[in-house]
Amino acid sequence: MKLYEFAPTPSSRRVSIFLKELGVDVERVQVNVREGENLTDEFKQKSVNGKVPMLELDCGVTICESVAICRYFHEATPNRKNLFGETHLETAQVEMWNRVVEFQGLFAGFQAFRNISGVYKDRETCVEEWGIESKRRVESFLPQLEQQLTGKPYIVTEALTIADITAFIFVGFAEKALQIEVLSQYPNIARWFKDLSQRPAFQ
C-alpha cells in the first residue's frame, strides 16, 4: 500500500493529520505537483482526478480524493475515534459541516490562491478577478465558523472529527496563503485553533 502525496499541500496535510489521529502509518511517495509530476501519463493512469493525495492498495486499486481516503482508513482500521461521528445524527452533522467548510471555506480559498497568485498558470487559465471574489467569499464565511465554535471545543460534537481537521487546514491556509488575519479577528476560532495545534497529530 502506498500513499502518493505532496506533503505541503492542504489536501495531503488533511489525510496526514487524519492518519496520525488514527495511529496509522503507510508508505509515502512524494509527487511534486508544483513541477507537474502529477501530470505524467503514468500518474494519470492511476489517478482518476490526476491529483494528490492518492492511495494505491496492494491489489492495484487506487482511491483519490482526500475524504474518500480518510473514509477507507477509518473503516479499515479498528478504532473508537469516531472521526466521522458516532450516532446517525452525528454522522450526518459531521458530513454537513465538513462539506460546508470545504465548499465555503477551503475550496474558495484554493480558487482565491490559484487565481491571484497564478501558481499554476502553466496549466490552467487564471482570472485574478475571480481570485479576488473567492477571497471575499472566504472572508464572508469566517463569521459563520466563529459562531459555530462559540462555547464549543469542536465544530460538531464534543470530540474531534474530520470537520475539525478540514477547518484547521482551511484556517491555516487562509492565514498563510491568503494573508487573512483570522486568528487575530476571531477569538473562538483562535482558541480552537490553538487547542488543535497542541495535539501531536497536528504538529
UniProtKB/TrEMBL annotation:
The keyword Transferase applies. It holds the Pfam family GST_N. This is Glutathione S-transferase. Coiled coil: none annotated. Keywords: Transferase. SUPFAM superfamilies: GST C-terminal domain-like, Thioredoxin-like. Residues 87-203 form the GST C-terminal domain. It comes from Vibrio ziniensis. The lineage of its organism: Bacteria, Pseudomonadati, Pseudomonadota, Gammaproteobacteria, Vibrionales. Belongs to the GST superfamily. GO terms for biological process: translational elongation. Residues 1-81 form the GST N-terminal domain. One of its GO terms (molecular function) is transferase activity.
